[in-house]
Amino acid sequence: MTFRSLTLPLAFALSLPAALAMAAPTMTAASGKGNILTDDAGMTLYIFDKDANSRSACNGDCATKWPPLAASTGDKPTGDYAIIARDDGTLQWSYKGKPLYAWFKDAKPGDLTGDGVNGVWHLARP
């Protein structure tokens, strides 16, 4: 009886990381500008005003400066998170219909240097 009660939780715990890897790789963090979304490494995520209808308008050089939050074919959308197809065929995470991006000038978790760039880039908020 004791062996079974230890085995089941252990089996569940071992399968948990695999299940989490398939969910949206974002977290909520407190910042000096309120709660924001971050990637799983703690880097700030942004949204782009020119994106519409769950479609990214940031391609080419834009996507070099604003790397899309990549999704893979094995990822599973959950809640307000969805996966969209980009013009180049890659997959990207979105939140409430807004594609999510990082900013190439953010060097460490907690940096918010992309907020307000050209008046069209903003912090992604929960």
Question: Can you describe what's shown?
Answer:
With 126 residues, the chain is an alpha+beta fold. The chain has one domain (24-123). Helix content is 20%, strand content 25%. It is built from 2 helices and 8 strands. It has helices at 2-21, 61-65, and strands at residues 26-31, 34-39, 46-48, 70-71, 81-85, 91-95, 98-99, 121-123. Strands 4, 5, 6 and 7 form a 4-stranded antiparallel sheet that branches. Strand 5 and strand 6 (91-95) form a beta hairpin. It is globular, with a radius of gyration of 17 Å. Mean pLDDT is 86; it is low at 1-21.
Could you give a short description of this structure?
The chain is about 20% helix and about 25% strand.
Can you tag this structure with a few keywords?
126 residues; alpha+beta; 4-stranded antiparallel β-sheet; two-stranded antiparallel sheet; 2 helices; disordered N terminus
